[in-house]
């Protein structure tokens, strides 16, 4: 998701860690499941909006005028994150529950 690199990276890292742990613990018959919730309204978006609005209000108007397309793109990305629908990965029966693959129980 554009303009959401840090949160996207942290989610990807957690998914990679879960996959590695799943492989490492399979020999002990320990199942590792990653829960991937759908889109939710979180306080982070409200805080981000407030910080962005404050920064714009205090920014030099001449500087802000240099980047109108980028400002619009950031606003559009934030709006999309707020209204995005839960997505499903290929093979999932439900957005929150992954379908077990071979070696998983």
What this model shows, in words?
By secondary structure, the protein is mainly alpha-helical. The protein has one domain (5-83). It has helices at residues 5-25, 43-58, 61-65, 68-83. The longest helix is centred in the N-terminal third of the chain and has 21 residues, at 5-25. The relative contact order is 0.17.
Annotation keywords:
105 residues; mainly alpha
Structural class: mainly alpha
User: Looking at the structure, what is the overall shape?
Assistant: elongated
Helical amount: 55-70%
How many domain regions?
1
Tell me the number of helical segments per DSSP (H or I, 4 or more residues long): 4
- Report the radius of gyration as a whole number of Å: 19 Å
Note the topology.
Elements: H1 5-25, H2 43-58, H3 61-65, H4 68-83
Summarize the structure.
By secondary structure, this protein is mainly α. It is built from four helices and no strands.
